[in-house]
Amino acid sequence: MTMTETAARGTRNDARWAAVRAGLTRGWLETKYSIQEPSDLVWILAFPVIYAVVLLFMRGSTIPGTDFALGAMVLPSLVGMSIAFGGLTGPASTIAVDREDGTLLRAKATPNGMLGYLVGKILMFALTTLVSLLVLIIPAVTVAGDLRLDGRTFVLLTLIFLVGMIATVPISVALGSLFKSASQTGLLFLGSMLLIVPSGIFYPITALPEWLQWVGQAFPYYWLGLGARSAMLPESMVVAEIGESWRTFEMFAVLGLWAVVGMVLAPIVLRRMARRESGSTVAAARERYMSKGY
Fold first, then answer.
1. Which residues pair with 215 in a beta bridge?
2. Dmax over Cα atoms in the chain, in whole Å?
3. Mean pLDDT per 10-residue segment, the chain (294 residues)
4. Whole-number Å distance between alpha carbons of 93 and 112
5. How far apart are alpha carbons 113 and 15 in whole angstroms?
6. How far apart are CA 38 and CA 42, in angstroms?
7. Where does the ABC transmembrane type-2 domain start and stop, copy by copy (predicted)?
């Protein structure tokens, strides 16, 4: 490799890192604006508050035939579901808005702008999802006894959260790029709700038909729920899982695969979508948006 090629590669790497840093800054600013917006804050807090109230009503209840707290069994699955839900449903709805207000057009005109845009979305939704999780976990652990809460729990949950957000946000961004308006992203919300059914979140996956178990294992909901259960439940509860194993390696492998696919696919889809945008199309979309009374 010649000195010129080495210098060119170094310049490209510097440009990518600059885009990553810009994305992190953008993600932090968008998070601050989001939590200051009442409608966004209600969306961030509504589900964890509802879950916490449900767990409160479970206080004193046990799994039939055992003395294990029902709330302790449900909470880890809710944690895994919240991570997946925060990463898969929120980002897609922002793509149409960013397309209409010209954000994507500006990102397209910036070197490595799509990479920075994607990094910003990952950080933003990681932070807002983290707020939701804290609202859920802090009160819930006081009413859900029998949980395993130690150093291993903290480390494993942190890793699961980080990998989970990287595995879900880019996929949501890529899917959101296929929708022409924000209202159409409701289809993704509906699809996510359907995927919860075979995911083992609210019912042991081993009790489902085998073909439905395979469907559940193909998507992040199951693996994030399994990971949270492996972090928070005592070892004796592993008997309810497939193969009576937490399958930690497989969990990180599947989520890692989703992350790789998303990080490769999302910038490509975003760039292709942005190529179809122009100042006139953005202005027309904005005019339609304003004419609806928003």
1. none
2. 72
3. 53 77 91 88 87 82 78 87 90 79 75 85 94 87 75 93 95 84 73 85 85 92 94 88 92 95 89 66 50 48
4. 22
5. 10
6. 6
7. 39-273
- Rounded to the nearest 10 degrees, the angle between the axes of helix 151-176 and helix 220-232 is 170
Tokens matching residue 146: 């029998």
Measured distance CA(169)–CA(267) in Å, rounded: 12
| Segment (H or E) for 141 | none
Q: Is 120 exposed, middle or buried (0-12, 13-18, 19+ CB in 10 A)?
A: buried
Provide the token pair at 64: 């039939």
| Contacts for 187 with CB less than 8 Å, ≥ 6 apart | 179
The span from the first CA to the last CA of the chain, in angstroms, equals 56
Q: What is the pTM of this model?
A: 0.85
Cα distances from 194 to residues 201, 219, 256, in angstroms, run: 12, 12, 23
The tokens of 67 are what? 């003395």
Rounded distance between C-alpha atoms, residue 238 and residue 102, angstroms: 49
Beta bridge mates, 69: 62
Contact 158, 79 (CB under 8 A): no
Distance of alpha carbon 135 from alpha carbon 192, whole angstroms: 22
Residue 62 pairs in a beta bridge with 69
